[in-house]
Amino acid sequence: MLYFFAIVVLFYFALAHKFTNIPGFNDKKKFIAFIILTYIASFAYMLGSDTPEYVNFYNHLVPISKLSSNIIEQYRYQPGFTIFCSIIKSISDNYLLFQIIHACLVNYVVFRFCNRYSCNPYISLLAYILINYLEFNFEIQRESLAVVCGLMAYEFYDRRKYIWAILCFFIAYYFHFSAIVLLLIPLCLSIKPTKRNTILLVSFAALAPWGWKAIPNADLFLAFFTDSTFYSGYINQELNTSYNMYYYISFYIMNMCIPLVIIWILRDKHPYYTNLVLIFILFKMLSLFSYGFYRFSNYFVCFYWIALADCLPYVCRRYNLKKPAIYALVLLVVCYTNQTKLTWFEDETGKYIYQRYFPYEDVIFGKDKYP
User: What is the pTM of this model?
Assistant: First the structure.
């Protein structure tokens, strides 16, 4: 299966990568990894629960020459995505072209970001494929374009090219309005991380999911963005109490405890992304009851990949541990906690209505093709 083939290849590359303090890929393996991940996303057929909706949207969209302001207003919550799809529709009516371009753009920017900021890019890519790859390429195609524009905005901001950073921010915002959360990045980078601030933020993150509904009219802040009724379906959700205790324990471990341990291990190095990882923790914990905060967390999860990549080789060197053992342990833990992503989706009656990610089928060797 291609998913596991990609994981094995990246795992091998991560083991073979020599740990240095200099970010970036140091060999030609990056090209192989890029081709594998891009191929899987480019030529997949109807994978993911939202893909049929994207296919339907694309098939009913007009080319850019016929795109009017009325059509853009009809999809006013995604004007950038509408224009982007309309341009591609002018080239080909086949949704496959959009999927290829989308996969190339998203994965190229992710690779470049890991290459620029990670001391072991292959570990970062392992975290990407295990945690966010399927969502970014199949589930949240609009938002993933906004996320990679956000990564580009961060790169320009880091290089003090503020005009380009602002431009990328606005492009991200028009792809998906959740990109407004990118405005927190300059603020986070300007605040020096301290033990006191960390404890306060983590305490708030741990308790916030259980206390949010106690705040009257807590969702009114969304009116700042646009028509607040559009977001009510995301924000006005009760905390789902149907899960068992194992779910909540594993959720807290994966999204709060492990990131905190990573920050603690790297405390002497004072990484620049400490506050950004803490914000990621906050949004992930809030996403327990609100899908809207899950969307916000996607803009900060990339810094979690970098933190994980910096942490593992550092632990191996500091505590004289065998690199294959510690890498394999982390890989197994992450795979186990994300195993539900490789299952079938079923409705309330228990009847399977469409496949999510397994089994993988592509349009080249498979029998089904996009219209």
Answer: 0.85
Distance, CA of 161 to CA of 165 (rounded, Å) = 6
Contact 32, 9 (CB under 8 A): yes
Give 52: exposed, middle or buried? Use CB within 10 Å, 0-12, 13-18, 19+. Answer: exposed
Please state whether beta strands 345-346 and 352-354 pair in parallel, antiparallel, or not at all (unpaired).
Answer: antiparallel
Distance CA 241, CA 251 (A): 13
CA pair distance 298, 5, nearest whole angstrom = 25
Quick one: which H or E segment has residue 148? Answer: helix 141-158
Provide long-range contacts, Cβ within 8 A and 24+ apart, for 274-277.
274/193, 274/198, 275/188, 275/189, 275/191, 275/193, 276/185, 276/188, 276/189, 276/300, 276/303, 277/303, 277/304, 277/307
Please say whether the beta carbons of 287 and 294 come within 8 A.
yes
End-to-end C-alpha distance for the chain, whole angstroms: 25
DSSP track, 332-354:
HHHHHHTGGGGS-EE-TTS-EEE
pLDDT tens by residue, 116-172:
888 888 888 888 988 889 889 988 888 999 999 999 999 999 999 999 999 999 999
Task: Give tens-digit pLDDT for 167-183.
Answer: 999 999 989 888 988 98
Could you give the CA distance from residue 180 to residue 54 in angstroms, rounded to a whole number?
A: 23
**Residue 155: which residues within 8 A CB-CB, separation 6 or more?**
113, 116
Q: How far apart are CA 212 and CA 194, in angstroms?
A: 25
Residue located via tokens 């994966």: 254
Calpha distance 116→303 (Å, rounded): 12
- Give me the DSSP letters along 78-140: -HHHHHHHHHHHHH-S-HHHHHHHHHHHHHHHHHHHHHHH-SSHHHHHHHIIIIIHHIIIII-
d(CA 276, CA 338): 23
Look at residues 89, 305, 260, 297 and name the one whose alpha carbon lies nearest to residue 184.
297
Amino acid, res. 172: A
